[in-house]
Amino acid sequence: MMYRATNTLDKKGKADWFTISMYLLFVIMGWFNIYAASFDLENAVGMFDFSGRSGMQLVWMGTSLVLAFSLLKIDSAFFDTYAFLFYVAGIALLLVTLAVAPDIKGSRSWLVIGPVRIQPAEFMKFILALTVAKIFNIYNFQLMRFKNLISVALVILVPTIIVIMQSETGTALVYLSLILVLYREGLPGGFLFMGLSAVIYFVLTIKFSETELGMLSVGEIMTVALIIIFTAGMVRNYLNRKDVPIIILLIGIVVAAVGFVLYKLNFNLDIGLFAIIALALVSLYLVYLLLRFRKLKYFYILMFAVGSFLFVESSEYVFTDVLQPHQRMRIKVTLGMEKDLQGAGYHVDQSKIAIGSGGMFGKGYLNGTQTKLKYVPEQDTDFIFCTIGEEWGFLGSIIVLLLFIVFVFRLIYLSERQTTNFARVYGYGVVSIFLFHLMVNIGMVVGIMPVIGIPLPFFSYGGSSMWGFTLLLFIFLSLDKSRKR
After folding, report:
1. What is the mean pLDDT of residues 474-480?
2. What distance in Å separates the CA atoms of residue 165 and residue 118, rounded to the nearest whole number?
3. pTM
4. Which residue among 131, 242, 253, 290 is buried most deeply as judged by most CB within 10 Å?
């Protein structure tokens, strides 16, 4: 009787056809753009010719549709029940890939099975989202308990580290985007603030690292000033004190003013040392406040200030000694420190030329000269958006962006209407992954983010990415379909 009742409820559940329609629209638009990006003027093949990219993409589209509608028929309890098993299998597959995968364009992330190449890291995205959702669905789970926080962090970090070892940094960053899910589920905003602060510190430190002013570079001095400002702001925000932030800022201003005056008086000063003195005085003041008022929050703010400085000091070491040469060059190109139009900057430079040449309304379908003459490498995979910009113009690009924005907001709406923790958390995992892909892919194509090689969902050529995104989305739609149970 129970099984029959469950099936009856499942049959009454309705799939969200608005989202499915958007999926179908994206897949078809992607197919047309893949044909345009891979079109060869001298050896033109038809859109349905399986010897070309568009023909093969049609195969991936067909199999993805079968996969999508099969997922809608699966009982939603299946995903909750076997989430941890999927995770173990996914980790095992990543390790096998690391051991046996051949080196393809500097990456060891592809399993080659005859004529087919599969990238397991793409499938780990939906598996990781399911696993995080499963953890949050444990009875009486509270994220901010230390044990729980460590458990979630390890679940995310283990596949991230393995994928980094495969030289797939872009995919590893996609996994880390799940921190947005944690923020939605109760992670304090301070953690997100620390992450954003780290990005700002790193950019400033590297961008202005060439000019030394004593013990520190110009970038490090700028970040020390930011640390002092952020420290004052944290005291004001978390302790609601008005006097302490003013004193902290005055310490920094007075030390900076004294250093500036002495510098103007032609004293042979170490400006970097003055910055360190200012931060040291602020830290000592926080120690005094901690000992006087016995509030643990003063200790956390002190750790933030000291930890921030240590992070700044380690940033240049990581940049020069940990990152690969091509990664350093991509960051330098993005920050405007290098041009390298024949190397790392070539992709982005040609992509921007292609997008700019499209003007307002584009050159027309199959009329993009930059695309047809193969000036842009990887133009049917990671750089597919430049084909849209050249042939559809600014207007077409904006329409595509608006459609994706509507798609993301629809997923947020679906996530919020879920009746279980598992479905809601998984839904926000889907939102985080899609949003990160959109921001980074389009950002790197227009030159405001480093080139890290992640596809544009449903537009970029590839079976693994098409299957991966389809699994990610339709598992959520299956959960949404059964939400009233």
Report:
1. 96
2. 17
3. 0.87
4. 131
